[in-house]
Amino acid sequence: MRQIAQKTILSTADVARLFSVTETTVKRWSDEGRLKCQKTPGGHRKFEIRNVVDFAEKNNFEPVGALAFATDDKLAQRIQVAMLGRDFSELVAAFVEAALFPDRMELFMFLSYLYQHRVQLWEMHDLVIRPGMAEIGERWIRGEIGVNHEHRGSYETLDALAKLQAQIHIRESTGRSVVCACMQDELHEIGLRCASYLFESEGWMTTYLGARMPDDAIASAVHEMKPDVLCLSVTNPPADGLLEKTLEEIVIAARDVKTKVILGGRLASALTIQPGMVDAIPASSRELLDFIEGFDRNNGRSPGKSGGHR
Questions:
Q1: How do the domains of the chain map onto residue ranges?
Q2: How far apart are CA 84 and CA 188, in angstroms?
């Protein structure tokens, strides 16, 4: 696969093509202060992706055009066509190819391209990254790629997500806070990273503890920071077989400071736990977003008056 060289700063012509309007219209939006821009010393307008996406959301504009890649190979053309038609199966195939391509910027450029075309974070997570990583895992199981390729794909995805987050439009602070961690020896953290970025994009203060967090360290972090929510992830069963008992101990620590607990990961729904032990087991980023959006409503609180900073 050739490198997908895609812009991260858009020109007036780019924005015009994206929304199928004239450049004069884009300039008018800019002059009116509706669409933020920066001007070069030569007077040319340049638009940051996050500002374009924010403008589109506020005005309920959907992209009706596809930005061009700097390269003109067949894959680039396929991605543009898939983006216009919201063909996620084709976008998953492109994700897999980008994740396995030996270039650190390749995958970031692809995810950035999706975001520029208003593919929402939950869609990117659920409809592209999740099935894409599953396909990479299946290729490894079938012996079509080595474990080095599978691991590289995982770390390239984490790196691309981190770079993408710098472009994401962050909503106004809600005053809420969340701590995210993988339990015990759990190494799979892509899903947790996606959850963390989703919370952050919705205006939550996020503390990311990452993979392989001992249960006492998680409990200590919760007591210290007193977050509104503790987000835990577990994909593979631990060697000691005591996951349920460990979870119960962490939940007790969370309840001491009135912290809600949500559990995600492939193993989450298969655990034998008492009803009501955790507050939610979202099976997707879409379900997690529903939890985030309904948090204040369901807990009888007013936004901006967090119990998470007690």
A1: 9-165, 177-298
A2: 32
